[in-house]
Amino acid sequence: MADITLRAVDPARDGDIEFLWQLLVERSAHAEMNISHQRMPSMREHIAYVDRHPYRAWYIVERRFERIGMVCLTHQNEIGVHIIPEHRGGGWGREAVKRITKLHTPLPAVPGTLPGSFVANVNPANVASRALFESLGGIVIQHTYLVPQPGEDHGEGERETKT
Ligand SMILES: CC(C)(COP(=O)(O)OP(=O)(O)OC[C@H]1O[C@@H](n2cnc3c(N)ncnc32)[C@H](O)[C@@H]1OP(=O)(O)O)[C@@H](O)C(=O)NCCC(=O)NCCS
Fold first, then answer.
1. pLDDT, tens digit, for every residue of 17-64?
2. What is the per-residue pLDDT for 57?
3. Mind listing the pLDDT tens digit for each residue in 62-92?
4. pTM of this prediction?
5. Could you tell me the domains of the chain?
6. Contact at 8 Å (CB) between 33 and 123?
7. Cβ(34)–Cβ(123) under 8 Å?
8. Is 140 within 8 Å of 93 (Cβ atoms)?
């Protein structure tokens, strides 16, 4: 079975910007792939964002020299991962997360601000992502609620109902 490699995102390299854009398009079309409902940026905003090196580490996941996804690590110890649909279910998402957690160590805890472990913020409706992090031994440590102000409705989240 061909392995994957992690290669640092390089905005100057032909195709990286466009590939990351393609992933963004998919995430913005599926509410469950996001935890915050942000608008899709313009291509110009996207380029500026990638150029800014916003994450502590950001890799393109490659398999047989083909881009099949990305994995990133934020300055808040959060892991993000995305594999393109045609390569899902082969263990590459889990492998990419394993690799990034081997390549880096969590930044030390800052009480009240930063956990001293890697974390993944996952929409509760994102079955695939929950399964991936659970298959790595991840445990749920909190439920985060968006709390509306009077008259405001956050609408699309998942609510638990009492029966
Ligand atoms: C989440 C995602 C990265 C998973 O990648 P993947 O390469 O398909 O996952 P893997 O093949 O490595 O699977 C890892 C585990 O999750 C399980 N899993 C993956 N997709 C699943 C699904 N749709 N339903 C149930 N379980 C699923 C696998 O069975 C495996 O567990 P197992 O070994 O116990 O069987 C991929 O679905 C994706 O890119 N989704 C869109 C972006 C996204 O939502 N990112 C996460 C934001 S936090």
1. 999 999 999 999 998 888 766 789 999 999 999 999 999 999 999 999
2. 98
3. 999 999 999 999 999 999 999 999 999 999 9
4. 0.93
5. 4-135 (3.40.630.30)
6. yes
7. yes
8. no
Nearest atom within ligand 1 for CA of residue 123: 48
Residue among 83, 122, 140 to mutate when testing ligand 1 (max atoms within 8 A of CB): 83
120 in Cβ contact with 133 (< 8 Å): yes
Q: Please state the φ and ψ torsions of residue 23, each to the nearest 5 degrees.
A: -65, -40
Which residue's alpha carbon is nearest to atom 4 within ligand 1? 93
Of 92, 129, 130, the residue with max ligand 1 atoms within 8 A of its CB, to mutate for a pocket test, comes to 129
CB of 128 sitting under 6 A from ligand 1: yes
SS3 10: coil
Indicate which atom in ligand 1 lies nearest the CA of residue 129.
Answer: 1
92-115 confidence digits (pLDDT tens): 999 999 999 999 999 999 998 899
Ligand 1 pocket, residue 70 CB under 6 Å: no
> What's the DSSP call for residue 102?
H
Residues in Cβ contact with 101 at an 8 Å cutoff, skipping those fewer than 6 apart: 79, 118
